[in-house]
Design a protein that fits this description.
Distance between the termini: 23 Å
Largest sheet: 6 strands, parallel
Number of helices: 6
Shape: globular
CATH architecture: 3-Layer(aba) Sandwich
Radius of gyration: 15 Å
Strand order of the largest sheet: 5-4-1-6-7-8
Helix content: 25-40%
Strand content: 15-25%
Number of strands: 8
């Protein structure tokens, strides 16, 4: 890590979830989130590090899951995550070297390469693990985001004082 991280950005599906969703016989959609990832959000807030959650999906179930966590910094329905983030970072005057990004799919490869710090859950495909700076011990949907934040804070010597 060369530059100071100014923002954490996370894909939702494949990081906050295990990538699965469920549809019942009535057509209702369900997503499974893990409350462990709230620890990561709380640690970022305590350290005054902004964050953004992004998703290519446009799902009411996903939005309700995010709302349940009280998260307001998110964007869903993104068809081109890299373009969206280029525009977002330019608007916020943040360079890619100041971004910590966690993703898990082929759509994240260029973003993982551009970010100053990148990570992926252990359950991501090999071609994603090959480009990420850090391969996390946590599986997708099992606290991977939180582990990313905790490992970063440990790396910069701020984890213990964050509790």
């Amino acid at each position: 890590m060369k530059a100071k991280i100014k923002i954490f950005i996370s894909e939702i599906e494949g990081v906050w979830t295990d990538g699965s969703f469920f549809i019942n016989g009535s057509g209702n959609e369900y997503w499974k989130f893990n409350f462990n990832d709230l620890t990561g959000i709380n640690l970022l807030k305590k350290n005054k590090i902004p964050f953004l959650l992004i998703s290519g999906e446009e799902s009411e179930a996903e939005k309700k899951g995010i709302a349940k966590f009280g998260i307001k910094s998110y964007k869903t329905g993104i068809k081109n995550k890299e373009k969206f983030l280029n525009d977002y970072l330019k608007k916020k005057k943040i360079s890619w070297s100041e971004v910590a990004y966690i993703g898990s799919t082929i759509d994240d490869l260029n973003i993982l390469k551009k970010a100053g710090l990148s990570a992926t859950p252990i359950t991501s495909p090999f071609y994603v693990r090959n480009v990420a700076n850090w391969i996390l011990r946590a599986k997708a949907g099992e606290g991977a985001f939180s582990q990313f934040v905790e490992d970063y804070l440990e790396e910069i010597g701020k984890l213990k004082e964050s509790f």
